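Progress note, sequence design subtask.
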C-alpha cells in the first residue's frame, strides 16, 4: 500500500514538490548530517513544481489571447488556427491539472487575464484592428471552467 506522500506524488505532483521542498528545508535547518546537499535539493525540487505551474500559466494566457481574438476580431482567415491553439493549450493543461494547480491558477487568473488580454490587444492593433482592440474588456468575462472546457468558445458581442 503506497504511503500518503507516495500517493500525493501520483495524484498531485505540484503539491508533492511543495511538501518535499519544505521537508528538505526543515532537515537542512535541523542540520541533518548526511551526504545530501539539502539546501540545493530543496530549491531544485521546488523548481520542478514551479516549471509545471509556469507552463500551465503560459497555456492559460494563450487560451485567453486566442479566445479574445476569436470573440473580437472581425477577420475570418486565422480563426481555425486560433481554435486549434486553444484546443492544444486546453489539452496540455488537462493532462497536467491537479487540485493544487487548479487552486493556484484560479487565484492568479486576474494576472493571467491581464497578460493574455495585452497580447490579444497588441495582436489586434498590429493587424490594424484598433476598433476590435478597443472592445476587449478590462476584466475577465469568462469563468475559469469555461476557459478550460474543451468545447466552449465565446460568442462575438452583439453589434
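Output:
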Amino acid at each position: 500500500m503506497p504511503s500518503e506522500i507516495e500517493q500525493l506524488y501520483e495524484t498531485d505532483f505540484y503539491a508533492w514538490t511543495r511538501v518535499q521542498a519544505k521537508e528538505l528545508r526543515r532537515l537542512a535547518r535541523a542540520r541533518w548530517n548526511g551526504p545530501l546537499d539539502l539546501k540545493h535539493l530543496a530549491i531544485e525540487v521546488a523548481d520542478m513544481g514551479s516549471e509545471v505551474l509556469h507552463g500551465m500559466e503560459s497555456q492559460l494566457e494563450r487560451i485567453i489571447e486566442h479566445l479574445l481574438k476569436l470573440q473580437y476580431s472581425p477577420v475570418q482567415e486565422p480563426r481555425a488556427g486560433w481554435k486549434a491553439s486553444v484546443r492544444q493549450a486546453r489539452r496540455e493543461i488537462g493532462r497536467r491539472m491537479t487540485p493544487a494547480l487548479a487552486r493556484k491558477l484560479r487565484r492568479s487568473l486576474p494576472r493571467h487575464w491581464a497578460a493574455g488580454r495585452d497580447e490579444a490587444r497588441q495582436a489586434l492593433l498590429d493587424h490594424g484592428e484598433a476598433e476590435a482592440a478597443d472592445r476587449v474588456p478590462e476584466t475577465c468575462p469568462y469563468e475559469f471552467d469555461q476557459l478550460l472546457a474543451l468545447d466552449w468558445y465565446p460568442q462575438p458581442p452583439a453589434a
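The CA atoms of residues 72 and 135 lie 7 Å apart. Work on this subtask will continue into the next period as scheduled.
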